[in-house]
Amino acid sequence: MLGPIGWITAAIGLLVGGIIGLISWLTSASEESERLAEGNEQLAESTEALNESVNSSSETYRQNQTEIRGAAEENQNLADKIEDLTNKENKSAAEKQMLSQYIEQLNGSIDGLNLAYDQEAEALNMSSEELKHRIDLMREQDVAQEALSRLTEITQQQAEVEEELAKVIEQRKEIEESGNLTRSESKERSEELNETENALKETQAELGEQYKVTEEQIATASENAATAIEEGNLRQINSYDDLEGALKEAVDAMSDQYEKLKDVATDAFQKIDLETEHTMESMIETMQHNQTAVAEWERIKQG
User: Fold this and answer.
1) Pairwise CA distance, residues 10 & 178, whole Å
2) Distance, CA of 75 to CA of 101 (rounded, Å)
3) Positive or negative: CA dihedral 268, 273, 278, 282
């Protein structure tokens, strides 16, 4: 039998043991909370970096498209000056020199243009309408190529967002299953993760919208390129072998972008279906016929 002192000693021992156990649990909980908080912070930082990258690439794309259209306007202004000087009678030596410089400058801006002035006939080797449509064609080809490049980039970024969201899900599962967190710590860690998840979902939605807009830009540019060929009465292009110089390079570049886009597209998105091979001939046909261009891209969007 324990006397009063024994009972007191036992009680103190139990109390000390309980306190030590509580301290040990709290210490463990604090360490676990810190570890999870660090994981949350890493996810938040990587998400912020990804969002900044998406915003930066989107802005770069907008700037590039603006520059393409600005360059086309400059080319058209130059073509107008060339036409005005060509039509002027009794040109001075200085005006002839200026005309030559303008033609050289425009040829340098549009690969394969080969614009020339016939001194005897006092005329250009192509009409003003044909020259305008050549400028329009180059603009639309550049717009489409830049859009294809951006579409590839968007697909890659969508995959990166999905990867980050998967990490968030895994982190949330770890928080929920942890037995070493107090209720307040578990709530705090979960709220931190909610902010990261919401930011990723916003980026995911924005990329989806950008994808649709960019896809429409490609369809519009393809249709406009076809219009430039048809209305400009440009020489007939029936196959890839008929292409020369800049036109062939443009088609090759667009073909490369198709392949890159096909390579980075994943089953997770099912945004596009490029399994059907796009031959060089079908790309030329797309440029030649408005209806074919629209139908082709509608097929891709529905694929």
Assistant:
1) 34
2) 13
3) negative
Q: How many domains does the chain have?
A: 1
Alpha carbon separation from 96 to 3, 17, 80, 107 (Å, rounded): 124, 103, 15, 17
Q: What is the pLDDT of residues 142-195, one digit of tens each?
A: 999 899 999 999 999 999 999 999 999 999 998 888 777 788 888 888 898 999
> Which residue, chain included where needed, has tokens 């200026």?
98
- The beta-carbon contacts of 126-133 under 8 Å, at least 24 apart in sequence, are 128/79, 128/83, 129/231, 129/232, 129/233, 130/232, 130/233, 130/234, 131/79, 131/82, 131/83, 132/76, 132/79, 132/232, 133/228, 133/229, 133/231, 133/232, 133/233, 133/234
**Digit-coded pLDDT (tens) for 82-108:** 999 999 988 899 999 999 999 999 999
- Cite the beta strand spans of 70-217 per DSSP E: 117-118, 123-124
245 within a domain of the structure (yes/no): yes
* Structural domain contains residue 169: yes
The C-alpha R_g of the chain, in whole angstroms, comes to: 33
* Model confidence, pTM: 0.69
φ, ψ (nearest 5 deg) of residue 220: -65, -45
Q: 75 lies in a domain?
A: no
Domain coverage including residue 260 = 36-68+131-302
d(CA 259, CA 37): 42
Q: What's the pLDDT tens digit per position in 33-74?
A: 788 888 889 999 999 999 999 999 999 999 999 999 999 999
17: enclosing H helix or E strand: helix 4-87
State the CB neighbour count (10 A cutoff) for residue 272. 17
Is there a domain that residue 82 lies in? Answer: no
